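Run log // design_07
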Protein backbone atom coordinates (compact mmCIF):
# COMPACT_ATOMS: atom_id res chain seq x y z
CA UNK A 1 0.00 0.00 0.00
CA UNK A 2 1.41 3.41 -0.98
CA UNK A 3 1.15 6.31 1.41
CA UNK A 4 1.71 9.96 0.56
CA UNK A 5 3.92 12.52 2.28
CA UNK A 6 3.41 16.16 1.37
CA UNK A 7 5.41 19.22 2.40
CA UNK A 8 5.87 22.89 1.61
CA UNK A 9 9.29 24.47 1.12
CA UNK A 10 10.32 28.13 0.91
CA UNK A 11 12.77 27.71 -1.94
CA UNK A 12 14.67 25.51 -4.34
CA UNK A 13 17.73 24.74 -2.21
CA UNK A 14 15.77 23.18 0.67
CA UNK A 15 13.66 21.27 -1.81
CA UNK A 16 16.70 19.93 -3.64
CA UNK A 17 18.46 18.84 -0.44
CA UNK A 18 15.38 17.01 0.85
CA UNK A 19 14.88 15.15 -2.44
CA UNK A 20 18.58 14.25 -2.64
CA UNK A 21 18.40 12.78 0.87
CA UNK A 22 15.26 10.81 0.10
CA UNK A 23 16.73 9.50 -3.16
CA UNK A 24 20.10 8.76 -1.56
CA UNK A 25 18.45 6.68 1.15
CA UNK A 26 16.25 4.87 -1.44
CA UNK A 27 13.10 5.95 0.40
CA UNK A 28 11.15 6.64 -2.80
CA UNK A 29 11.81 5.77 -6.40
CA UNK A 30 9.85 7.40 -9.22
CA UNK A 31 6.97 8.65 -7.09
CA UNK A 32 8.45 12.08 -6.25
CA UNK A 33 6.68 15.22 -7.48
CA UNK A 34 7.50 18.92 -7.22
CA UNK A 35 5.42 21.91 -8.25
CA UNK A 36 6.10 25.66 -8.06
CA UNK A 37 4.68 28.68 -9.84
CA UNK A 38 6.92 29.67 -12.73
CA UNK A 39 7.65 33.17 -11.45
CA UNK A 40 8.90 31.76 -8.12
CA UNK A 41 11.36 29.25 -9.53
CA UNK A 42 14.25 31.63 -8.77
CA UNK A 43 13.17 32.45 -5.26
CA UNK A 44 15.51 31.74 -2.42
CA UNK A 45 16.61 33.17 0.84
CA UNK A 46 18.41 36.50 0.65
CA UNK A 47 21.75 34.96 1.69
CA UNK A 48 21.38 32.30 -1.04
CA UNK A 49 20.82 34.99 -3.68
CA UNK A 50 23.89 36.93 -2.54
CA UNK A 51 25.99 33.76 -2.53
CA UNK A 52 24.95 33.12 -6.14
CA UNK A 53 26.00 36.65 -7.11
CA UNK A 54 29.37 36.41 -5.36
CA UNK A 55 30.13 33.05 -6.91
CA UNK A 56 29.05 34.26 -10.37
CA UNK A 57 26.75 31.25 -10.68
CA UNK A 58 23.40 31.96 -12.30
CA UNK A 59 20.29 30.58 -10.66
CA UNK A 60 18.79 27.52 -12.31
CA UNK A 61 15.94 28.39 -14.61
CA UNK A 62 14.12 25.10 -14.29
CA UNK A 63 14.08 21.92 -12.25
CA UNK A 64 17.26 20.52 -13.85
CA UNK A 65 18.91 20.81 -10.44
CA UNK A 66 17.19 17.55 -9.48
CA UNK A 67 19.71 15.54 -11.50
CA UNK A 68 17.18 13.89 -13.80
CA UNK A 69 15.46 12.22 -10.83
CA UNK A 70 12.31 14.04 -11.81
CA UNK A 71 10.78 14.14 -15.26
CA UNK A 72 9.83 17.75 -15.81
CA UNK A 73 6.90 19.01 -17.84
CA UNK A 74 7.09 22.29 -19.78
CA UNK A 75 5.45 25.24 -17.98
CA UNK A 76 1.66 25.03 -18.09
CA UNK A 77 -1.39 26.70 -16.54
CA UNK A 78 -3.16 25.14 -13.56
CA UNK A 79 -6.59 26.59 -12.64
CA UNK A 80 -6.57 28.57 -9.36
CA UNK A 81 -2.74 28.54 -9.30
CA UNK A 82 -1.38 30.03 -12.52
CA UNK A 83 1.58 29.01 -14.67
CA UNK A 84 3.62 26.30 -12.97
CA UNK A 85 6.71 24.22 -13.48
CA UNK A 86 6.06 20.70 -12.25
CA UNK A 87 7.86 17.39 -12.26
CA UNK A 88 7.04 13.80 -11.44
CA UNK A 89 3.71 11.96 -11.51
CA UNK A 90 1.83 15.01 -10.24
CA UNK A 91 2.81 16.94 -13.38
CA UNK A 92 1.34 14.26 -15.60
CA UNK A 93 -1.88 14.15 -13.59
CA UNK A 94 -2.27 17.92 -13.70
CA UNK A 95 -1.68 18.08 -17.44
CA UNK A 96 -4.29 15.40 -18.15
CA UNK A 97 -7.10 16.78 -15.96
CA UNK A 98 -10.18 18.44 -17.42
CA UNK A 99 -9.55 22.20 -17.75
CA UNK A 100 -11.78 23.09 -14.81
CA UNK A 101 -9.89 20.86 -12.36
CA UNK A 102 -6.77 22.04 -10.62
CA UNK A 103 -4.21 21.11 -8.03
CA UNK A 104 -6.67 20.65 -5.17
CA UNK A 105 -8.71 18.14 -7.16
CA UNK A 106 -5.60 16.13 -8.01
CA UNK A 107 -4.48 16.15 -4.37
CA UNK A 108 -7.83 14.58 -3.43
CA UNK A 109 -6.79 11.48 -5.39
CA UNK A 110 -3.89 11.01 -2.95
CA UNK A 111 -6.30 10.82 -0.02
CA UNK A 112 -6.14 14.43 1.21
CA UNK A 113 -9.31 16.05 2.47
CA UNK A 114 -10.71 18.98 0.52
CA UNK A 115 -9.72 21.45 3.24
CA UNK A 116 -6.09 20.30 3.25
CA UNK A 117 -5.96 20.06 -0.55
CA UNK A 118 -7.16 23.69 -0.80
CA UNK A 119 -4.55 24.69 1.79
CA UNK A 120 -1.71 23.22 -0.28
CA UNK A 121 -3.12 24.75 -3.45
CA UNK A 122 -3.04 28.15 -1.71
CA UNK A 123 0.58 27.59 -0.63
CA UNK A 124 1.65 26.91 -4.22
CA UNK A 125 -0.38 29.88 -5.48
CA UNK A 126 1.47 32.14 -3.01
CA UNK A 127 4.94 31.03 -4.13
CA UNK A 128 5.91 28.00 -2.09
CA UNK A 129 7.38 24.76 -3.45
CA UNK A 130 5.19 21.70 -2.92
CA UNK A 131 6.80 18.27 -2.68
CA UNK A 132 4.59 15.19 -2.84
CA UNK A 133 6.07 11.73 -2.39
CA UNK A 134 4.41 8.34 -2.53
CA UNK A 135 6.20 5.43 -0.93
CA UNK A 136 5.59 2.19 0.93
CA UNK A 137 3.98 2.33 4.34
CA UNK A 138 7.20 1.20 6.05
CA UNK A 139 9.20 4.13 4.57
CA UNK A 140 6.69 6.97 4.95
CA UNK A 141 7.88 8.03 8.42
CA UNK A 142 11.49 8.25 7.20
CA UNK A 143 10.35 10.34 4.20
CA UNK A 144 8.43 12.73 6.47
CA UNK A 145 11.44 13.01 8.79
CA UNK A 146 13.73 13.85 5.84
CA UNK A 147 11.30 16.49 4.60
CA UNK A 148 11.26 18.02 8.08
CA UNK A 149 15.05 17.85 8.49
CA UNK A 150 15.57 19.98 5.39
CA UNK A 151 13.07 22.70 6.29
CA UNK A 152 9.77 21.30 5.05
CA UNK A 153 6.66 22.82 6.62
CA UNK A 154 3.05 21.63 6.81
CA UNK A 155 4.27 18.05 6.49
CA UNK A 156 1.50 15.49 6.48
CA UNK A 157 1.29 11.80 5.74
CA UNK A 158 -1.84 10.52 4.01
CA UNK A 159 -3.33 7.21 2.99
CA UNK A 160 -6.17 6.87 0.49
CA UNK A 161 -7.88 4.36 2.75
CA UNK A 162 -7.85 6.42 5.96
CA UNK A 163 -9.31 9.79 4.92
CA UNK A 164 -7.30 11.86 7.41
CA UNK A 165 -3.61 12.50 8.06
CA UNK A 166 -1.61 9.66 9.53
CA UNK A 167 -0.26 10.97 12.85
CA UNK A 168 2.05 11.47 14.59
CA UNK A 169 4.51 12.98 12.18
CA UNK A 170 8.17 12.47 13.01
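design_07 sequence
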Amino acid sequence: MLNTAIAIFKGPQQTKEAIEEIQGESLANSKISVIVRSEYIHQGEFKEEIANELAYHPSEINLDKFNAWLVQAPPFIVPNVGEVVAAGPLASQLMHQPESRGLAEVLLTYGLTEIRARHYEHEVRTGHWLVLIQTNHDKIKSVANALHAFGGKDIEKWSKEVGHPIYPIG
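The chain has six helices and six strands.
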